[in-house]
Amino acid sequence: MRTDSSADPVRSASAPISVLVPTYNEADNIGPLVEALDRAFRGMSYEVVVIDDSSPDGTAQAALNLAERYPVRVVMRPRRLGLSSAVVDGARVAAGDVVVVMDADLQHPPELAPVLAQAVLSGADLAVGTRYKRGGGVEGWSISRLFMSKTAAILAKLLLPEARPLSDPESGFFATRKSCLSSIKPTGLYKILLDVVVQCKPSRVVEVPYIFRPRRAGRSKLGFGHIADYLAQLLRLSGWRPFKFAAVGASGIGVAEAILYALREVDYPIAAALAIEVSLTTNFVLNRAWTFRDRAIPWLKGWLKYHAANFAGAAANYLVSNALVLAGTSRYLAYFLGVLAGFAANYLLSELYVFGRDKA
Ligand code: GDD
Ligand code: MN
Fold first, then answer.
1. Which numbered atom of ligand 1 lies nearest the CA of 189?
2. pLDDT digits (tens, 9 = 90+) for 20-33
3. Would you say domain 2-237 falls under CATH 3.90.550.10?
């Protein structure tokens, strides 16, 4: 007799869905979570992998007790090493080829775990639970917490083009393939999804809205110290792009000042126009080859876009520095001050326009 599982051997009972749950002091939550997952996955093959960092409240023992009645396994780590690396360690031992990542505190609705897993089984590379799409939301958040969360998302989208398609790039509730998650090197303590989108480059992404509820018990492990960790993670994942961009800009000032010096017999308005044009071009070449080398944009189109994007900054520089020279400032200092006037606008336009993703 033909059964459903024999029709699709890869997804038969031998390849369960692995739900990865990092825990630190979640002894009161792990039982209700596992029970809710068991109801949600009824009739499906699944396992729960709890990755516990030696929680002093005995979470690991609570999970081991659950293993007598439910498909629960426990990975024990010697000390608190962070959510992100816990999830990767869990993925390494996962039995299934589809993994779901979620918190232990029931802030992520267990009934959606099979929905995320199913999206990956049906061909998605990544399925993300999102708070910021119609049907999703947060419960019980202060305005300031919402503001922090939104600001974090905007920063991620600004620095990481891979995060731009996601409405909730900070989400800690998602499903992907084991092969992706187990190969990741975490670049931060908490935001493993950013590592997933940058390091695995999923092409088919599905979003599933959910309501982020208040914690069932215990306290959040996210503190103010994590903000610095988060910013460092964004910079690492971006390949330190803002610093590279600044270094290229500094080299451009050197090029321009050298031209002003070489043309010291030429009137400032003409010398400055040449200095600006040549340094714009050397900046573009260096940014294309280094700062944004992962984004192959065409030479001529890029050069023209770079001019368009820098027009405001260059014009500001030109006007400010000419005025300063007329007022008696040395041309070298005037040029430098002019550059400062145009810098902020240039950076924003380059990130969002010149080196933004080409759809072709
Ligand atoms: N193993 C391990 N090690 N687990 C940890 C650690 C750690 O160092 N730190 C936290 N956890 C566990 C918690 O026990 C919990 O199960 C889960 O990771 C999330 O921690 P919370 O303290 O509940 O974080 P949160 O609710 O503020 O934020 C979570 O949800 C957000 C929205 O999806 C995180 O997943 C965020 O990254 C996410 O943005
Ligand atoms: Mn939580």
1. 8
2. 999 999 999 999 99
3. yes
